[in-house]
Amino acid sequence: MARLADYFVLVGYDPGKRGSGDGQGQILQRFPEKDWEDNPFPQGIELFCQPSGWQLFTERNPPSFFVAVLTDINSERHYCACFTFWEAVESTQPQSHPRNGEGEEEEEEPSSPVQPAQLFAPKSLVLVSRLDHAEVFRNSLGLIYTIYVDGLSVSLENVIGNLLTCTIPITGGAQRTISLGAGDRQVIQTPINDSLPVSSCSVALLFRQLGITNVLYLFCAALTEHKILFLSSSYQRLTDACRALLALMFPLKYSFTYVPILPAQLLEVLSTPTPFIIGVHSIFQSETQELLDVVIADLDGGTVNVPECVHISLLPEPLLQQTREALSMVLDPELEVADLAFPPSTISAASLKMQDKEIRAVFLRLFAQLLQGYRWCLHIIRIHPEPVIRFHKAAFLGQRGLTEDDFLTKVLEGMAFAGFVTERGAPYRSIDLFDELVAYEVKRMRAEEGNKQKILRHIKELAEKLYKNENPYPAVTMHKVQKPTEGCHLRLHQKPFPRLDEGTVQWIIDQATAKLQTAPPAVKAEKKCMVPSGPPIAAIMERNGNALANSARRLEVVRNCISYVFENKMLEAKKLFPAVLRAMKGRAARHCLTQELNLHVQQNRAVLDHQQFDFIIRMMNCCLQDCTAMDEHGIAAALLPLVTAFCRKLSPGITQFAYSCVQEHVVWTNIQFWEAMFYCDVQNHIRALYLDNNEENHTDEENTEGPQEAKSALEIASEQLRLWPTMSREKQQELIQKEESTVFSQAIHYANRMSYLLLPLDTSKNRLLRSSGLGDVESVSNSFVTNSIAGSVAESYDTESGFEDAESSDVANYVVRFINRFVDKVCTESGVTNEHLKGLHVMIPDIVQMHIETLDAVHRESKRLPPIQKPKLLRPNLLVGEECVMEGLRVYLMPDGREEAAGGNIGGPPLLPAEGAIFLTTYRIIFKGTPTDPLVGEQVVIRSFPIASLTKEKKINIQAQVDQFIQEGLQLRSCTFQLLKIAFDEEVASDSAEVFRKHLHKLRYPQHVRGTFAFTVGQSPKQAMQPKAKEKNPSLRTLSKNLVKNAKKTIGRQYVTRKKYTPPTWEQRSSQHFPEDNEDEISVSEEMDRSTLTPTTTIKPSDKMTINHLVERACCRDYQRMGLGTLSSSLTRSKNEPFRISTVNRMYAICRSYPGLLIVPQSIQDNTIQRISRCYRQNRFPVVCWRNSRTKAVLLRSGGLHGKGVVGLFKSQNAPTAGPSQTDSTSLEQEKYLQAVINSMPHYADASGRNTLSGFTSAHMSSSGKWGSIRASGRMSSYALNMEIGSRLAGKDLLGAQHNGTPSEASFLRQHRASLYIIGDKSQLKGVKPDPLQHWEVVPIEVFDVRQVKASFKKLMKACVPGCPSNDPSVAYLRSLEESEWLSQIHKILQISVLVVELLDTGSSVLVSLEDGWDITTQVVSLVQLLSDPYYRTLEGFRLLVEKEWLSFGHRFSHRGAQTLAGQSSGFAPIFLQFLDCVHQIHLQFPMEFEFSQYYLKFLSYHYISNRFRTFLLDSDYERIELGLLYEEKGERKSQQVYKSIWDYIDRLNKKAPIFFNYMYAPEDGEVLRPYSNISNLKVWDYYTEETLSEGPSYDWELTQGQPEHVEEADRQDTSAPQTKRKIIWPCYDNRSRVEPDAISKLLEELHNLEMELGQVPERWKDTWDKVKASQRTEARQEGSRTPSSLLMSSSLSHHRRSLGVYLQESGVGSTLNLSLDSDTSSTSTPSSGKQGGRKSTSTLYSQFQMSESENRSYEGSLYKKGAFMKPWKPRWFVLDKTKHQLRYYDSRMDTECKGVIDLAEVESITPGTPTMGAPKTVDEKAFFDLKTTKRVYNFCAQDVQLAQQWIDRIQSCLSDA
To answer: Looking at residue 475, what is its pLDDT?
Structure first.
């Protein structure tokens, strides 16, 4: 029972304090005057009676009533019902008589005269109660007012006394009728269950005022502890709104500031930092404007205003949506049927009271769904004397899958929820509607989801219950309470409220209390019971079946892997391991892991061997890596017992446990995790404690009952709590004791456990300090932990001394502090006695210290263990002379955007990522390792590229393995189309990675070209690092020094100061002409000694040597081949030759970048040349580089023109007469020069008239309709080589059937053409006027510049070797390929080249004069020669072409390849690569026309940037001479293996194996190739896209040979696996041409093997090939037809060119150089070396290529030779070389390395000899002969006499020749 009202108070206006503006109230009377013991009188009531301030009014207001709520210091709520009415203020004259005389004064007052302008003061009757019965209070106070106003004959004292003594039951649904003794009657109903709030209609009203969304915002704001302020002009509504919000929050209770009506004087409360729910009258709205963090709800306006800085977390979906829908069904039932054609007539919302309960039912359901299964996350730590309960928040969120959800996380961390746990956690108590709902109805709610009818039915059921709770008795007898008469408050002469007699009231109260004391106490029968737990969360949250099936497979993998580990089947385990690590991303797999590992622990211990231990650790780490610090899925919790169980023996007596290897995880530093774990364990032990007790007592009963379900801890606790009152005092004490010691022992256990996981293995370094965990521990509630840890971190970390020299004490202190904090918290919460707690604090430092000591031993031993999991680093094979600069750094090679290696588009296990090491040598960057995927773990992965080809290096961060942390890495991109994306292993310190980068940079950009690998090869790398190596290097020949000296002398003084010619920068060159001085510097000074320039004078002897060398250069050989002039006749030459070889540039004086010998027209003097050269950029004047042997048209090349050159000559407006207008002599000379070229052409004379390209509009052209654009306006418009034309420029009929234009078709060009076409850059030739008298014509075209090539190449590299995978690779590749525009550049070059070929073929000469004459010009000129002349399509010819056009004519290889530091900024421009790509395109279209294979082109592409050979270094012949490179090839080599020239290397390789040879080679005689250049005909070169991971790039032939054998051996070791002969070829892994060679290579290889077996001297492959071809030809002849034989496939190869098959025929000339398979002897195929013609094609066909020493073999054969003193006779292969004048001998015919040389100059005599000891027995004596030299006598023996005689004759003739 409880008092209905505690105090009755009369509050009035205090006139004394009026001066300050606002008045104040004062308590006039209060009853009872003494405070109740159980309930003191609340302070500050006078403020709440007039919340907006005490003021006087000029008129009487009607009485008002509202209920304010006060909260006292014990957070008890007091309800103050205020009834206010107005009284006239007494007259304003000062009061003389004392205050206690008020009674008499009141009686006198009516007689005084009425003052009409009276003021009225408020007066309030207040009831203070702890019960919230607002209606009863309203009625009771109304009754008192009525008695007073209407003057009823009832004593007010009596009524008030009765009111204060009235007692009613608090709860239980009783009904009580009360009367206050004034003939009134009221019925009070108490709610059935007082835990459910009473709301009458307030909730429904709140929704009416604010609407669904706004209320939901407020609801979420209140739950997540935001500040909420209600505004309204009605006090009663403020109270109602606040009450409604609290009712919605049930079952959570609001525990912050709650003031439904806040008085004006207390407004500053609004700026409090804590959350609140407050109501304020809306007249104070302006004062609430500056509140920044308060959510303001305006009840009158229906708005909710959320400030910007406040973020309200809303309910998680789908709950939010479901709640909204349910609310709208309740509040707006018409909405459902609003669209129906025939809406039901009866739908209407329920009554307000019912609607109120329905809304509350919706929220009750919401909470049941939010908190379902919460009881399964309660930990009961103590049962006696008081239950202590904790909630495992992380587990709850984890099981619900809502860890990321803001709302629920905040709610669980909030105060309201803490109260909820304390209040509702208890296992044994009375239960209410919510408990039942959450325990029994959750399943039903799940099932009904989405079914609106059922949901509505459920809501109505719940609403019924709520309504019943508030109104248990439906038939309420009517209240009978007197009401005042209408308008009584307006009565003029209303007496003031009488003063009451305290005594009377007090007496009534005393009477009642005495009676109560005598009455027996009413015992409230509490129905306590065990609280039902409901289904566990897991049962509720069912998942979709598909995922389950999928995860079941994964779990199977995890289980298998673990069982393999424990059965010691390591290989099997290794194969499954990556899959297991991937599976660990899923929660189920992690749980499965912990369960499986549990099975393998016996008696808390599982000893493993090192490998097993390692596997288990990696799994654990991977498992923990994805756990957050909260450990919401309990993974860390489940692993905690395991990490102290698994161990390995390091040495006798020293065991390492798993915990020392899994400390790197943030979860271990989270105090909340440890608390949850601790509580969980304590609960289990306490449960066990009581279970044991029960079992002792009831063993017999239990057996009879049968199997009992295991009781949960809560069930046991509730049972114990029920029994507690019945136990004896001793028994109770004993239980308390037992529980306390259980908790205590657990605390010790946890102190140990924490020290295990917090103390790092190496205590000198604190691992925790590095871990990121401390900074961002999630929750706010343990912020004190983070601060203090951070503090301690700072203290110990900032001291620079580091931990190495410091003692390990700071780590220990840190850990001790951490554990102490933990122990304090949990022990105080779980009621451990103080003595025990002190004991713990003493123990903890000892525990930590002890543990540190054991760890030191473990650390020491574990360091001795060989780390097993990492494979040993494989050493790469190095070239001869290549040395390691840096030892291997352990790295992971990560997959990039190419899919093949990662097992992408071709399937198969991924080869990458691979783990291995990266090596830096003087030549290459090499990665060598093995794939991490165990299915291919036996394979070796190699990726490498030459350092010189590195184009970009950037740092990246990557996660190398699933179970590892992010590492730093590098991405290295190379222009050999390779990309190394590496992640450094954690064992690699970041500074060694830095050192790696520095070395790399140093090697990539050496100071000088001498620093490149081609020069430093064979030296020690350290020397290579020093720039001084230049002077030390002895390889500068004296010759080259002289040459340079001479050049300097010749050039005159200007050059003496300049050490080295540096080409002008791009900016200068791109401008139209040079500044004067610069030009002068580069051209030759005028006043130079004439004699050095004119060839008529005799050449000085000092220059003779130079000239000899120049003659040997490639260009000169080629000039002679084409018959463009010879040097021998240069002094007495026949005038009929149109061209001559000029030596004007032999000192490189005129043009540094040209070769020393040049072809110029016969009629032009050398001094003229010097002047002409100035008109051209870089002095590169036009020179002849090729002549068509049939039409005698010539191809010329030059640099672009300066402004005043030919262009000036073309631009002159007036007719070019020889008059004074042509003052510029150079123009005239230039004109003469061009004319001389034209005159050289034989049919120039019979060219009738002067026709230009305008004749192209012939029938041929118009048929294709493509040529219109070529001559647009009249005769001389731009010769637009538009890419869109795409037509075969030289007159191909696109529609015709003949694809490749035959000469007949092109002949139409003959009648109309200029004699010389100058192909120039459009931008330079602007405004050129046509000139009818000239015989040349300018063709301006647009070309791309080097910048565009660079940009295009970059994009091409990114397209072919993307850095990271794209989402749609097929599309992305093609798109990026197109964007690179590489193919369109190739199209452009081919198009121009084909045009030039056509012009030359029709007899016009062409001068290509583009840019500086060394990039695109070179590409075009070389391609033109390749297309026009079959000789250049042989191996030898192609070499010659490259040497002549690219090397001699000064393509700037070093500059374009950015080979030195100077070129670093300009970057890599692949001009030569582009040329090779064009050749590749032509090769694809004409596969039978080339003697060399595609591999040859790739080989050149790779090595021209690899810097392995010196061939492609430096920018011109001049620079090569200056460095002494050009002629040293002639000298002897230092070491036999190091090849300085790529050509030597290719020759040598070609002798060994036919890798560069194209078996389809069967050229047609004199064929001019005209490839298609449309982009659709071009293919992306596979050089850009293919790679071989098994051996790295296959272009360093020595490295790729002989590796398969190793691999096979490795395979054989593993004998357990059955051996099979199957070989799987894997496109990106194997080198296909080696693993599966083509048929011919295969046959040659088999032949070679047979020869070896039979012991014959193996023949060279070329000989075999030639023999086969010869026999082939004879067979073909016998058949009488030229049908193709079975050896070579013939087909209608490209362009349907061949009707005949490939037929083979011995070359007519037995040339060793020219092997055009079926050419007749033609002018082009005369061999350059004049040797005897018809030789036998057997043994004498010794080698068709020059040897590596470019040797000549005049005679050769096998002879026996007597060794030196005491050595036996041996057969040797002898070669007589007339040219070099020496006799060389080799071990065998096949041997390429010369074993000795006899110089014929030293031979004195040759005589017949006699056999000596050990000579071959079978040989005739006459077959012996001796050779006497100045040094010694050689004894020889031939097979027979004839041979001996032949040898003697040959050697004699050689001697006589000399």
So the answer is: 62
Q: Is 1312 in contact with 1251 (CB distance < 8 Å)?
A: yes
In one letter, which amino acid is 1060? K
In which residue ranges of the chain is pLDDT below 50?
19-20, 93-115, 540, 542-547, 699-708, 767-808, 963, 1021-1044, 1046-1102, 1129-1133, 1205-1223, 1245-1311, 1529-1537, 1603-1619, 1682-1750
Q: What does DSSP say about strands 227-232 and 276-281: parallel, antiparallel, or unpaired?
A: parallel
Q: CA 1585: distance to chain centroid?
A: 22
pLDDT, tens digit, for every residue of 96-127? 444 343 333 333 334 444 445 578 888 899 99
Residues 1507, 198: Cα–Cα separation, whole Å: 91
Q: In whole angstroms, give the CA distance from residue 10 to residue 678.
A: 57
Distances (CA, A) of 1060 to 600, 694, 1520, 1608: 77, 103, 12, 54
Residue type, 1264: S
Cβ-defined contacts of 535-544 (< 8 Å, 24+) = 535/373, 535/442, 535/443, 536/373, 536/376, 537/372, 537/373, 537/376, 537/396, 537/399, 537/400, 538/399, 540/372, 540/373, 540/442, 540/443, 540/446, 541/399, 541/400, 541/401
Let me know: does 1789 contact 1773? Beta carbons within 8 Å.
yes
Overall pTM > 0.70: no
Element (H, E) at 33: none
ω into residue 385 within 30 of 0, thus cis?
yes
Closest to 139 measured CA to CA, from 613, 480, 623 = 480
- Residue closest to 245 by CA, chosen among 199, 191, 189, 193: 199
Classify residue 1750 as exposed, middle or buried by CB count within 10 Å of its CB (0-12, 13-18, 19+): middle
Q: Where are the beta strands (DSSP E) in 1261-1360?
A: 1316-1321, 1336-1341
Q: How far apart are CA 167 and CA 52, in angstroms?
A: 33
- AA identity, residue 1070: S
Q: What is the pLDDT of residue 1023?
A: 37
- Which helix (H) or strand (E) is 1425 found in, with range? helix 1416-1428
**Run of H or E residues at 145:** helix 134-150
Distances 628 to 761, 777, 790, 1627 between C-alpha atoms, Å: 23, 10, 19, 42
Q: At 269, which helix (H) or strand (E)?
A: none
CB-side exposure of 950: number of CA atoms within 13 Å? 28
Q: If you search the block for the tokens 């000893």, which residue do you land on?
A: 607
**For the stretch 689-718, what's the b/e string if a residue is b when 16 or more beta carbons lie within 10 angstroms of its beta carbon?**
bbeeeeeeeeeeeeeeeeeeeeebbbbbbb
User: What distance in Å separates the CA atoms of residue 1251 and residue 1254, rounded to the nearest whole number?
Assistant: 7
> Alpha-carbon distance 141 to 8, whole Å?
10
Helix extents (H) in 533-586: 537-540, 545-566, 570-583
Residue with tokens 């302020």: 229
Which residue, among 353, 329, 363, 325, has the nearest Cα to 248 in the 3D structure? Answer: 363
Contacts 24+ apart (CB under 8 A), 336-343: 336/452
pLDDT given for residue 947 in this prediction: 92
pLDDT on residue 1109: 63
- Among 1286, 1464, 1491, 1495, which Cα is nearest to 1391's? 1286
Q: Check the CA dihedral 370-372-376-381 and report its sign.
A: positive
What's the token pair of residue 1499? Answer: 């080989």
The closest alpha carbon to 1472, from 1433, 1432, 1443, belongs to 1443
DSSP 959: E
SS3 1429: coil
In one-letter notation, the amino acid at residue 1799 is D
> Helices (DSSP H) in 1535-1578: which residue ranges?
1542-1552
